[in-house]
């Protein structure tokens, strides 16, 4: 059985309340029996609930990367508070005695093993494409792109200077049709434009208006490219239904393709035996799409790539979807699926094992970081040339020091190259520059900065927003 501690339980819990309630069961001595199987792959016990019959709960470690929790209680949370309490009882040193696995529980374990075996077999079978359904969907998407093109032309004819909150909301109403046309990515791109004009009552300075206009012009270029590239891609797929979704770019995702793990594996977008360390975390409420989004920023310790996890929890189903949280340990993954994308692609995995951070991990993070700002600036500029590329990429930078030059807070490399620090990045991210003075002065010299690049469209210069600082012994997170 793998090592279990409080961090392990917190990561397994669907929410903080479930973890708190699970610990409460132990404090109240609600467990009347605690056992483990002969091979130590299963913890199980009985917990007294509100009824006469105690609940049978268990934690099955047959697959250490994906622990299975079961309980006879009616809760729809997995794991429920009883299974979490079972783990807390183990961590707190309660006595677990060897016991015969109950028949009902053993049957479930056998059925789970059979399903896992069948899943492996199914993974080797070739997938069949429903050509008629695919053709119907593509035609609907093409009609949606026609609408997006019309709306984009309407916006150009109206002019950026004539846009206001009222016209933005009118465009938003029409944009709802893009969701019905299987184009959620296009709908989101259009929203990125219209939201620039929603704050009608806000008194804007000339500088802030010009900044909004510059951003709006950039967004119009993105919408035009989305229509052009999307139409070409969809026509190609319509001509050849057997053609797999595009993996060399993110156009499929822009058009709303929801990648399945099986597809990513079939396309060869998978890495084995990977270790990851989380460098930053942010959770926000996307009101426009009516969902909560949990985003983790990770470094792949096998390659040094900075990659993202994104967990979407629609309002309508949020209570049934586990919220992601900050992770302060090394995550070991046997199979890591990497989505098509740019410098910071999305990643996903099905199971993991965690271990504590060690000195070698901090050293590895720093070894993968860029020593020369000039080299990174060149990479970022090349990235920004593509209209559909991520405009706010994250890089790791080894720096000489962070300090003030005049009114600007800057970071400098060993060659004297400087980048101005900014609070502007993703709109959903909290402020971070204001936290830097709270760090020890030693953490602001000769360390590694995890930073989000931003191109200021008015000054035409690159700026960076600090996300965390990595030292030889710690990761100082500014967003978590």
TrEMBL record:
Q: Per UniProt, which keywords does this protein have?
A: Metal-binding, Zinc, Zinc-finger
Entry keyword Zinc: yes
Example GO molecular function term? Answer: zinc ion binding
UniProt domain SWIM-type: residue ranges = 55-91
Q: Does the keyword Zinc-finger apply?
A: yes
Q: List the protein's name.
A: SWIM-type domain-containing protein
């Amino acid at each position: 059985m793998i090592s279990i501690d409080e961090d392990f339980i917190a990561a397994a819990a669907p929410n903080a309340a479930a973890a708190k309630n699970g610990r409460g069961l132990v404090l109240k001595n609600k467990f009347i029996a605690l056992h483990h199987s002969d091979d130590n792959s299963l913890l199980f016990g009985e917990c007294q609930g509100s009824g006469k019959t105690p609940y049978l709960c268990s934690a099955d470690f047959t697959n250490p990367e994906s622990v299975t929790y079961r309980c006879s209680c009616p809760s729809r949370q997995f794991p429920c508070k009883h299974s979490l309490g079972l783990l807390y009882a183990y961590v707190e040193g309660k006595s677990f005695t060897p016991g015969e696995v109950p028949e009902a529980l053993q049957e479930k374990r056998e059925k789970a093993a059979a399903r896992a075996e069948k899943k492996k077999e199914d993974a080797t079978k070739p997938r069949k494409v429903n050509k008629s359904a695919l053709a119907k969907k593509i035609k609907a998407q093409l009609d949606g792109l026609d609408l997006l093109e019309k709306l984009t032309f309407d916006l150009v004819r109206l002019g950026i200077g004539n846009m206001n909150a009222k016209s933005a909301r009118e465009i938003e109403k029409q944009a709802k049709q893009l969701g019905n046309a299987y184009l959620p990515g296009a709908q989101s791109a259009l929203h990125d434009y219209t939201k620039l004009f929603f704050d009608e009552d806000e008194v804007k300075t000339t500088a802030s208006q010009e900044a909004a206009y510059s951003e709006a012009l950039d967004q119009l270029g993105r919408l035009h490219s989305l229509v052009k590239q999307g139409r070409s891609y969809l026509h190609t797929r319509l001509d050849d239904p057997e053609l797999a979704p595009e993996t060399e770019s993110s156009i499929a995702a822009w058009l709303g393709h929801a990648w399945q793990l099986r597809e990513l594996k079939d396309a060869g977008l998978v890495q084995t035996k990977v270790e990851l360390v989380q460098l930053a975390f942010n959770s926000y409420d996307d009101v426009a799409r009516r969902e909560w989004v949990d985003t983790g920023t990770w470094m792949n310790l096998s390659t040094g790539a900075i990659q993202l996890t994104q967990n979407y929890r629609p309002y309508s189903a949020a209570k049934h979807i586990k919220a992601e949280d900050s992770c302060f340990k090394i995550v070991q993954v046997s199979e890591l699926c990497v989505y098509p994308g740019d410098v910071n692609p999305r990643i996903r995995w099905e199971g993991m094992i965690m271990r504590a951070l060690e000195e070698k991990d901090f050293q590895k993070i720093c070894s993968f970081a860029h020593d020369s700002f000039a080299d990174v600036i060149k990479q970022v500029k090349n990235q920004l040339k593509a209209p559909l590329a991520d405009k706010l990429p994250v890089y790791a930078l080894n720096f000489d020091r962070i300090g003030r030059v005049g009114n600007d807070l800057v970071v400098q490399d060993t060659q004297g190259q400087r980048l101005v620090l900014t609070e502007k990045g993703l709109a959903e991210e909290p402020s971070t520059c204001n936290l830097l003075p709270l760090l020890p002065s030693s953490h602001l010299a000769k360390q590694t900065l995890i930073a989000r690049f931003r191109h200021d469209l008015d000054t035409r210069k690159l700026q960076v927003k600090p996300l965390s600082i990595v030292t030889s012994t710690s990761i100082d997170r500014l967003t978590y």
